[in-house]
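Exercise 4. Each item below gives a protein and its sequence. For each, produce the structure-token representation.

Item: ABC transporter substrate-binding protein (Xanthobacter autotrophicus).
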Amino acid sequence: MKRIVTGVVALALMATAASADIKIGAIVSETGPASSLGDPEARTIRMMVEELNTRGGIKGEKLKLVLYDDSGDPSKAKTFATRLVEDDSVVAMVGGTTTGTSLAILAVAEESKVPFISLAGAIEIIDPVKPYVFKTPHTDRMACLKIFEDMKSRGLVKIGLISGTDGFGASMRAQCLTVAKSSGIEIVADETYGPKDADMTPQLTNIRNKPGIQAILNSGFGQGPATITRNYAQLGITLPLYQSHGVASNAFIELSGAKNAEGVRLPGTALLVGELLDPKDPQKAVVLAYKASFEKAAGGAPVSTFGGYAHDAMRILTGAIAKAPSAKPAAIRDAIEATTGLVGTTGTYNYSKTDHLGLDLSAFRILEINNGGWKLVQ
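Answer:
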């Protein structure tokens, strides 16, 4: 009998030890049309969990990751979010590579009261503020404001806008239209394209033919912006071309062709120009450390802005778990909201009850594609 009781106690202790792991969930678009964004996100999340566990975990407990690939499908994203909450019993979630998948996940997060840190850009994700939803990328409205600021500094005030009809493109178009007038910008042409369109020369021709046009801005991500950049060069358009932060990666240059993309400007993060930053810049050490870790783990694959969004989300989440009085979702949520002064690859985060983004416009850098690489404009 004594041996039986001892065995039962041992099994109970083993079960307790097994359940001591802190389980977090991730949903990204590792495959599909947004894989150029989701793949580095997935790599980063896995890498950071492994690194943290190698160092001993959080408060002596290992982090257990459950990661699903939604292939860019919002329906899959919502199904996986429900599975993470109901079946996997995670205490927090990161992910949502695209606006569409993020909106699907956040609905589950809010209903289940499990904190979620989004990796997508649309302002709708955190405006209005939702108690359990945060995000790491700048908003599309901030991208519009930063681009318009640079345009005005160059005397470019009459522009053409071309936007994807996907969630990100449509949201950024709406934000640019909203803030253009107050920014001193006149939008004299407004064209759109579908996610599967393979030729945008008709839209670009319409924009080019508008009297007085001085520059063109594309709001979109994925294949569309690269197609526009190639078509732009094919048409011989010499007006300045701006893209969104949705294509701030080396993959965009490769898809567009370095020669075609020469001179294109966009708002991006310090991560793409880490070596060019001032030694006193607080982000320099952070971005160079992440760059070195990622490239080593990924076999030399270059870092991207999108992996940086995942890096920052994981830093915020794990930091909050470490500070929270318990590993319960509500306690973690409160600790995330209390995050201030956290220097990431995207900027310095200062969350509050009224701000679940925590970044200001100064965190954006205007970058220009130069000789197949990136040049820091401001």
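Check: The domain at 2-139+285-362 is CATH 3.40.50.2300 (Rossmann fold).
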